Amino acid sequence: MELLKRQEKWDITYTHALGEVASWFFVQIRDNAKIYGRRCAKTGRVLVPPRAFSDQTLEPTTEWVEVGPGGRIETFTMVYEPFQHLPEPPYAFGFVQLDGADTAIGGFFKGVDLSDPAKAAEKLAIGTRVKTVFADKRVGDLIDFWFELA
Amino acid sequence: MGLNRKTAVIGSAILAPIAGDGQSLEEVLYEVSQRALKDAGLSMDDIDGIVVGSNDQFDGRAISIMAASGSVGGVDRDILSTPSAGEHAFVMGVLRIASGQYETHLIVSWSPLEVSSLSEAQRLGADPYFHRRLPLDEASAYALQAAALGAAAPVAHQLAMPIVERSRESGAVAGHDPSALPEDESAGNARWPLRDGMIAKATSGAVALVIASEDYVREHAVDNPAWVRGMGWATEAAFLGDRDLSTAPALEEAARRAYEEAGIGDPGSAFDLVEITGVTPYQELIAYDALGLSRRDAWKEDVEKGRFTRTGQLPVNPSGGAVALNPVFCTGLMRIAEAARQIRGTAGKHQIENAKLALAHAASGMAMMYQTVLIFGNQQEGGRS
Amino acid sequence: MNAPRVGIIGIGQSAFKSRRDDASYPDLVREAVNIALAQSSLDLDAIEAIVYSLSPDAMVGIGNAERLGVDAVGGRNKRFLRINTGGSTGISSVAAAYYHVAAGACDVVMTAGADKVGECGDSQTVLNKIWDPIYERPLPQGTITMLAMSGIRYANKYGMSEEDMARVVVKNRKHASLNTNAHLRKETTVEEVMASRYISWPIKLMDCCPQSSGGGAMVLASERFIKENRLDAVWITGVGHCSETYYIGDRMGTGYTADHGDAYALGNSFKRAFKMAGITDPRKQVDVAELYAPFSNTEFHAIEAAGLAGHGEAVQGVKEGRFGIGGDIPVNPSGGTLCTNAIAVTAMIRVAEVALQVSGRAGGHQVKDAKLGIASGNGGDHQFFGTMVVEA
């Protein structure tokens, strides 16, 4: 029998409040090209990206701490498959523990030739030192900066 | 049949509306959870499990409960979620405690206003096979239900505005100023027979409750717990066309179970107050009937003679109810929190003095599809005395 | 207090496929419900309450799609609610159904659901939206990349090659070839897996689960009901849940609670279920395991979290054939999530499959003399973990 199909598209926009902590963090990135974390007073751990509270201790964080611009790769991947509304492959991204931070922040890795996955993976291995590079034009988002090999 | 053991509400927090843009959703969830814990005099270390309820399309997050892991206190703890309704999170928490595997639970539901159109987000709930092309948001469904009720019981049209006025007066006592609320313009527009003001504009909100087992309450000598004396929940069919919208058989069924468990024979005289989820006065009227509080033929007299005012024989929605303040997805859980607070004597400005037995009704989905009834008492067993 | 025993008396699952253009979403739910009811010798009237199993709405493209499922499960005027813990939804739903009975709320409860992942234009685009919009969504994070990053940490910590990953695929595809309900049933080789294209390094196409369509349903009942009606049952003797932080970046660095390379909270979830079931030595006591692992590398840390191998030892165990049918403790004899993933019910099928195994009704992929089985589900961003012990 004739089986019908119907195409439906969801198109809704959301305006998410960032709150005071993330707002201040992104303003520093946008205006001063600096990355800050928040310290949990109970454990002394510095959360980067900054959160208003620690989900380990459930205590509010109390202090801004500048971190980076150097750091070490904690994990990464290289994407070779296209996905709708995601960047054109190949690209590499992952998480970096910036100097002075206890947690890792996500970002793209640039300046590494991804054409040979095995060779690229060696260059991006866990523990590799990287530096933060900021875009000239910054809008106050996570993609205002990326990481390159130090 | 009754549950294997009793549960009580021992703490709660209501943040509605959520003020301004000063907090991210996770920060709101952290605050409401911490406040509920403080109200209960507990810390997160005392909590065995968490159940949350939220709506992906309202939140703009594909699995919106993921935001609750760190913020609510779920790291290394046990979380379930009931995205069908905020009040279902409460039901699930009570069942988990009654199972004997948990002594305490934190229940959280929230409803932000970050979507460009709440109405559009609600319309995605219409199935793509038959109904998606219709402008079926929650306000439209409430209007269709109001029209059906008006046809079956024309007196409903006469009583709608008096109910709205009573709700606003109670809301004012409770401290809600409807003109000051941030609101979503797309949801809550008048649709015949609903007139302007009969349906509250949607607002943001978050609600948290701490519940504990009878063993925990006894061992920790918890002050003034609000005991869950009866609980019922049921669903209507999904398609509005399959239902007689002027009635609420699922609510009758939910109430029957709750009354049976609580040993209530005459609901009309059993309660010191009730909190009803009537997003418009028409839904409130349907609930009167289905809950057995006031049958259709008694509505006119009961409403006009003030039986349901805060000083009347059976105060309905001393908080002002959903007509005064409507944090859409957590409105049902808010009614549960309000009723429990009345029993605990912590309702604040709108406290009904000496409240000993209260009913909370929660409804979610299109035209009150999901119906839930909770009965709270200041005693673990027995009557109202 | 002692909770009443809860048994599984009916199981229904579709033969999973890429697309089911012959069936609407509720039709698929009903298909599984009918099978489960027939197996339990009950009709819909006997079902007192329903736990609806459905993960992200966006995956089926219908907001609160559980409402559309109410008639498919015969839910009108019955107790009905929906559970969602992402990929672990299915096992969380079985747990929620379990609590209905254990609480004394009812004697017979059904959990059911379905998914049509094949109808979702691009599941990774939807799944990117599970991350917080402030810090991790813009990356662009996805479930494949997230678990590739877990695999890289695992490999760095314990040693794991791409060939090791491929051996998991070969094992599970072989198992799936014996299971008529599995989606990907073609056997494969390490060479074939290694030759498939990279999706997110080190995960290649054949290291990934498919996008499946189909339904699942289970009927649970109290011991009293089962005895009074002389029904066949297997018993849920352990139930656990545990969660990790939302932020991937918080599972690394220094002083973290969970390492993103491991499955920390899955381990704690299993500890809770094992404690309840009285399991003290899983390597000796567990006969069969169905562990949620949508990408080949994640089966290693799942095996370890279940206590079936020490940290970093699962790789060698798979190499030695310990976790294949005929080995010490067969893991994913159904072919597992790697060969079938209809997200809303995937973790339910894990429980259903161990229930079939311990009742001796698993068919072509039956594990000989299986009496005690364990199941798990992972949801969110490797965040929510549900576990269960099922015994004959």
Structure description:
The complex is a heterotrimer of chains A (150), B (385) and C (392). Chain A is built from two helices and eight strands, in the order αββββββαββ. With 150 residues, chain A is an alpha+beta fold. In chain A, a hairpin with a 5-residue loop joins strand 1 and strand 2. With 385 residues, chain B is an alpha/beta fold. In chain B, the strands form two sheets. In chain B, strands 3-2-4-6-1-7-11-10-8 form a nine-stranded mixed β-sheet. Chain B has a two-stranded parallel ribbon with strand order 5-9. Chain B is globular and about 55 Å long. Chain B starts with 6 loop residues before the first strand and ends in an 8-residue tail after the last strand. In chain C, strand 5 and strand 6 form a beta hairpin. Chain C has 392 residues and is α/β, with parallel strands linked by helices. The mean pLDDT of chain C is 96. In chain C, 73% of the residues are buried. Classes of the chains: A alpha+beta (150), B alpha/beta (385), C alpha/beta (392). At the B-C interface, helix 3, strand 3, helix 4, helix 5 and strand 7 of B face helix 2, strand 3, helix 3, helix 4 and strand 8 of C.
| Low-confidence regions of chain A | none
CA-based gyration radius of chain A: 19 Å
Largest sheet of chain A: 5 strands, antiparallel
Radius of gyration of chain C: 19 Å
**CATH domain fold name of one domain in chain C:** Peroxisomal Thiolase, Chain A, domain 1
Largest interface: B-C, 70 and 75 residues
